Amino acid sequence: MIYEIALLPVHTQHIEQFKRAFAEVAPLLIRAKGYGGHLLAQGIETPHVFNLIVRWASLEDHTPGFEASEDHRVFMLGLEEFFSEEPTVYHIEEAAFAAGGGQGSAFDLIPQVS
């Protein structure tokens, strides 16, 4: 299990439109092979930057999997007009999240889509 972390800088004047656009394209992400849940959170100190965290079964499910798909092309097409800069994307392994000593992981709090 890995996590994709994407920092999505959005033009301040388009934040509400971005939220609606994300809700419209999210089903394309949700139906991707290896998808295990996601969280989209607006920054507190930087409210124009959204943090998208996606749980994937493997790195290959995200890249090249989803990123090489037609669904990803349409997903990005629906969002890119709202970006003020190129998004930053990186990956971490699940163990980094689970190291807090509690039961389960931080993603246990995220609703799962079935």
From TrEMBL:
<dbReference type="Pfam" id="PF03992">
    <property type="entry name" value="ABM"/>
</dbReference>
<dbReference type="InterPro" id="IPR007138">
    <property type="entry name" value="ABM_dom"/>
</dbReference>
<keyword id="KW-0560">Oxidoreductase</keyword>
<dbReference type="GO" id="GO:0004497">
    <property type="term" value="F:monooxygenase activity"/>
</dbReference>
<feature type="domain" description="ABM">
    <location>
        <begin position="1"/>
        <end position="75"/>
    </location>
</feature>
<protein>
    <submittedName>
        <fullName>Antibiotic biosynthesis monooxygenase</fullName>
    </submittedName>
</protein>
<keyword id="KW-0503">Monooxygenase</keyword>
<dbReference type="InterPro" id="IPR011008">
    <property type="entry name" value="Dimeric_a/b-barrel"/>
</dbReference>
